[in-house]
Amino acid sequence: MPVYEILDIGTLGGDEAQGLDINDRGEVTGEAATATGTSHAFVYRDGEMIDLGNLKADRYGAGASSGAAINNKGEVAGRAENEEGLRHAVLYTNESAIDLGTLGGAYSEGHAINEAGQVTGIAFTPGVSQYHAFLYSTASGLQDLGTLGDSYSTGDHINDAGDVAGIYQLQYDIHAYLHTQGSMVDLSPGLSSYISPSGVALNSAGHVVGTYRIDDTTRSFIYRGSGIADVGTLGGAIAAAVALNDSDQVTGDSTITDTGASHAFLWSTDGIMNDLGTLGGDFSNGTSINGSGQVTGQAATETDLYHPFVYLNGEMIDLGLPGEGVQGVGTAINALGQVTGIYQVRSGDRYQPFYSRGFIATPISLLFSKLQDKASTVGPGTILRATIRRAARYYDRSDAERTCSTLKAFELETSLLSYRRKWRDEMTKLAADARSLMTSVGCNTTEDNAKQLSKSAAETTTTTTTTAAVAVRRALTSEEKAQAQQWYREHFGIGTNGIFVNGRFEARPRTATQIQNEF
Question: Does residue 287 sit in the same domain as residue 349?
């Protein structure tokens, strides 16, 4: 039985989109192309992509914008062009755009947001090509957090207490900092080291993870209030930590030997770094982790293509890809285990052979739960809820035949109950949700289509998590495969470090090995 439903989130009329962050309500933000080709920030909610516009008078016209992070209220932090064509940090709240301004210079951008609507990011100072981390709140406006060095600082992450973590430059070194209780604290004072320009991650306790340079190698650290501690490696010399949760579980990637092959890892406070493996290839990396220790990222398949994955219950699960997707990466995972990310599709244009698109992957078990909740809100909810609960039990037992027959019975029940005018609209919606769920678990496929899907899954090493709605993929020729891999590395990369510099997508990502080679 499939484990996840994975869907394309669409665009704003153009060809491309990127899913960059997801909140616990399953709302996604990122950027998507409009019909004119300009990218706008968006919120994807209840199956609909909403254009958040920019900072111009005609917010939905020319002028780019992007959403970097979204909180559980649906507020989005990011960047947007203003009337002068300058990029400013922006806060979207109730779908209204608020220009956060700058620190006297021309540009700024928002990187992260907390549940109170406080935003951090970078803003240029006047007269010089330098930028500082900032903290924005509706009460205090844009505050310059300064720097402990002689050049720049960044605001990468913010927690609900208003603590900010980032990096700053001191001569030729790059150090991590934590801004807490009004002061900026160097996390590695006196240590001759480099902190990765990929930035750092922060949790609710004010603990920080990142990457540092010591003894001619690149390693990962965790800071928990009293100096940094090395989290180790998977056997090689290099490790890059990129995310942590409130239990201080850490993910990223590490070399497994001195040959440079990297695997995603999950490090826990017991000091053990667990190798999450791959999807049959020789590479994987973790990009995001939720409070339950579920990890997402990307991993190489046996055919050396990259697929988004979820690691849960000790297993790396291939999420597959929507439609004609070729390769992809999971960028963020929420508390419910939903994942958003970016994937690669063919364009049919020889000069621009691929596009990037966004996706959302939802656990099938969560879809059952949501349908049960919806059924409970209508008049005959007792009957409908019992049917869905029974279907969910069959699904948990991997009994496909009874799962599908029970879902079909639920759809029939909604049809019978729709004769009551006061229930008609609700029953129509429930029937549609039931049909969608049947598609996701494979109930609507013919025997021939099922055989084709099975064959396609074997060819692409996509596991049974691929939903029945996924189209059959034409196998790549060797030339197309080489072209796809090159395009993917240039746009998505084969590692996290650099994909989400300061919490946003970057064109030239770096793996742990690549970070090592830069120093």
Answer: yes
Residue span of the structural domain in which 325 resides: 190-375+445-519
244 has which bridge partners? Answer: 250
Measure the CA–CA gap between 162 and 165, rounded to whole angstroms.
Answer: 10
Write the CATH number for 271: 2.130.10
Q: What is the pTM of this model?
A: 0.89
Q: Do both 260 and 370 map to the same domain?
A: yes
* Inside any domain, residue 50: no
How many angstroms separate the CA atoms of 283 and 82, rounded? Answer: 41
- Roughly what angle, to the nearest 10 degrees, separates helices 364-375 and 421-441? 170
Amino acid in position 64:
A
Domain count, the chain: 2
CA quadruple 172, 109, 200, 138: dihedral sign: positive
> Do 351 and 460 lie in a common domain?
yes
Q: Do the domain assignments include residue 296?
A: yes
Token pair listed for 10 = 């669409």
Q: Is residue 416 domain-resident?
A: yes
pLDDT tens string, the chain, 519 residues long: the values are: 789 999 999 999 999 999 999 999 999 999 999 999 999 999 999 999 999 999 999 999 899 999 999 999 999 999 999 999 999 999 999 989 999 999 999 999 999 999 999 999 999 999 767 899 999 999 999 999 999 877 789 999 999 999 999 988 887 778 889 999 999 999 877 654 556 556 789 999 999 998 887 777 788 899 998 888 999 999 988 888 999 999 999 999 999 987 778 899 999 989 999 999 999 998 999 999 999 999 999 999 999 899 999 999 999 999 999 988 999 999 999 999 999 999 999 988 888 889 999 999 999 999 999 999 999 988 788 889 999 999 999 999 999 999 999 999 999 999 888 888 888 999 999 999 999 999 999 997 544 334 333 333 333 333 333 333 333 456 788 888 988 988 887 777 664 332 222 333 333 333 333 333 332
Same domain, 429 and 301: no
Q: Which amino acid is at 23?
A: N
Same domain, 413 and 274: no
Q: What is the CATH number of the domain that holds 396?
A: 1.20.58
Establish if 39 belongs to a structural domain: no
